[in-house]
Every structure is written in structure tokens, then in C-alpha cells.
Design a protein that fits this description.
The chain has about 200 residues and is of the alpha+beta class. Helices cover about 50% and strands about 15% of the residues. The chain has a five-stranded antiparallel sheet with strand order 4-3-2-1-5, covered by helices on one side. A hairpin with a 6-residue loop joins strand 1 and strand 2.
């Protein structure tokens, strides 16, 4: 069954990308140029387009184009607010040296005695920290099976349990609705070390 589903998904993606070739002018349609249909040519075109776009954006000209584009967006009142907020979130989440989404935690939510998987998003909360007695951290509790939505909670650091599983393993568990329980390599090493000490 997994092989069949994988085949169907790949076939659907290739079919969708092949349909994108219809956007080309009639003179450049592969069927007219070669006289026959070439399955997967849309995938090659999409990969080439992504690579060329990446190379353009990575050089000096690309940076100038992005800076010019952002300057234009900054002049539009509502768009400016939405764009800057999304940009800040993406930079915080995707930064390789950041602390966001680096730890998988267990949090008692929605009530005591019931545990939920969460991801630590920040431990520097500024005013929130100043106005709370306990040392709090910000955590994101995703919903299942769609982890792009969820809840942001400020939780006392002493009340969370840090897990050894990776973020990817945590996401797999959430997306699978708890069916796929990760066999964390780090956790196994930790248990093995404890057994060796005994």
C-alpha cells in the first residue's frame, strides 16, 4: 500500500508539472518540437526554473532586486504590516543559529494530567517574562494532523519535560496522530548509558 500511494502521488506531481508545459507558446510546445510526448519534461523544466531563480537571487543582482521589491512593499500600508510580520516569523523559524523549534517538549495541556507535544519557540520573552513570577518559555502546541495551526502558550520552564526526540520525529508523531511513535536514537543511547552505569 505505501508503494502504491507513493506511485500515485509521484504520478500526480509529474502529471501536474507536465501540464505546466501548456503555458509555453505553441511554437515551443514539446509535442510540436519533437513530434511526440515526453513524460516528465515538466519536472525537468520546473527544476531548471528553480535552479536558475536561485542562482539569480543568490548573486548581487538578485539581492538588489529583492531589496527593491521589499522597498516597494514597504510603501503599501496593509501589505507592509503582513509582509514584515511573516518575514520575521520565517527568519526566526528557519534561522540555522536560532533557538526556535530546536526542542521537543511535553506540556500539561489542556489540563493537568494530560500531556501534549510542543516545540519551544523562544526563551527570551521580554515584557512577558518581566510580568510573570516564574521563568517562562514560549511553546507552540500544533494541532493534528495539520501541524501548521496550533496554540502558543507561555509556560513555566519548570513545568515542561524536554524530550530526546528530534523536531522531525515530533512532527511525524503529530501528523500520524500518535500512531508513529519515534524510536529516538538519542533516547536509546541515554537508556543504554543508564543501564551501563547500573
Amino acid at each position: 500500500m505505501p508503494l502504491g500511494v507513493t506511485f500515485l502521488v509521484v504520478r500526480a506531481i509529474v502529471g501536474f508539472l507536465d501540464k505546466s508545459l501548456t503555458l509555453l507558446p505553441d511554437a515551443f510546445q514539446p509535442d510540436r518540437l519533437f513530434g511526440f510526448n515526453i513524460p516528465g519534461l515538466g519536472v525537468v523544466l520546473a527544476v531548471a526554473l528553480v535552479l536558475v531563480t536561485g542562482m539569480i537571487m543568490a548573486n548581487l543582482l538578485g539581492r538588489r532586486l529583492v531589496a527593491f521589491w521589499e522597498l516597494q512593499l514597504a510603501k503599501i500600508p496593509l501589505v507592509r504590516t503582513i509582509y514584515s510580520a511573516i518575514k520575521q516569523i520565517m527568519e526566526a523559524v528557519l534561522a540555522t543559529d536560532g533557538k526556535s523549534f530546536r526542542k521537543v517538549l511535553l506540556v500539561e495541556y489542556p489540563r493537568k494530567g494530560v500531556w501534549s507535544l510542543a516545540f519551544m519557540t523562544s526563551d527570551d520573552l521580554g515584557e512577558v517574562q518581566d510580568k510573570t513570577a516564574a521563568n517562562v518559555i514560549s511553546v507552540f502546541i500544533p494541532t493534528t494532523p495539520n501541524p501548521t495551526s496550533g496554540f502558543v502558550l507561555m509556560v513555566p520552564e519548570s513545568e515542561v519535560i524536554e524530550l530526546d526526540m528530534t523536531v522531525e520525529e515530533g512532527l511525524k508523531m503529530i501528523i500520524s496522530m500518535g500512531v508513529v511513535v519515534p524510536d529516538s536514537e538519542a533516547y536509546r543511547r541515554k537508556i543504554q548509558a543508564q543501564q551501563n552505569l547500573e
